[in-house]
Specification:
With 165 residues, the chain is an alpha+beta fold. The chain has a single domain, classed as Butyryl-CoA Dehydrogenase, subunit A, domain 3, CATH 1.20.140.150. 62% of the residues lie in helices and 13% in strands. The protein has five helices and five strands, in the order αββββαααβα. It has a five-stranded antiparallel β-sheet with strand order 4-3-2-1-5. β3 and β4 form a beta hairpin. Belongs to the PMP-22/EMP/MP20 family. InterPro entries: PMP-22/EMP/MP20-like, PMP22/EMP/MP20/Claudin, PMP22_EMP_MP20. It holds the Pfam family PMP22_Claudin.
């Protein structure tokens, strides 16, 4: 039972870190190694100065939906972890971690919705000056998709996890 508890906790922390990276890093769409776009900025690398030059993205309704859903996913997963820690020390023996599991499932569903919206509407989200057909999805987009099954699985495991002595 202790191994399962350690496994679920580590899975939770790993998915939470992946959600933070997917939400904050600058690689949801990549045109080439020196130009990319994320949920917040369109960036290009300036070789002469050796720095990234970033401009805020054009705010579309689809982009705002993806931003909100990814932030909600991070919030749900963070609240889930804090509630899990609280329940771990205060819950009576034999109790189930329902609230923790439901928060994780909601985090997975919001991450799924965000990644799906970005997939279906990336032409409206990306800047008008760049052609979406000349680029590819970046690693943050892939991390968001990888988080979805991990969050859902950890949520189900939390729902079935009982507190033992």
């Amino acid at each position: 039972m202790a191994y399962l508890l350690i496994f679920v906790t580590m899975l939770h922390l790993i998915t939470l870190a992946m959600l933070f990276i997917a939400t904050m890093e600058k690689s949801w769409w990549v045109w080439n190694p020196t130009e990319s776009s994320d949920l917040w900025y369109n960036c290009r690398f300036d070789n002469s100065t050796g720095t990234w030059l970033c401009a805020t993205t054009k705010e579309t309704e689809w982009l705002q939906a993806v931003q909100v859903l990814m932030i909600l996913s991070v919030v749900f997963s963070s609240v889930s972890f804090l509630v899990f820690l609280g329940q771990l020390f205060t819950m009576s023996k034999g109790g189930l971690f329902y609230f923790t599991g439901l928060c994780q499932v909601f985090a997975g569903l919001t991450a799924f919705s965000a990644a799906l919206i970005y997939t279906l509407h990336n032409k409206e989200i990306l800047p008008d000056s760049k052609s979406p057909t000349s680029g590819d999805f970046g690693y943050c987009y892939i991390l968001a998709w990888v988080c979805v099954p991990l969050l859902l699985c950890s949520g189900v495991m939390y729902i079935h996890l009982r507190k033992k002595e």
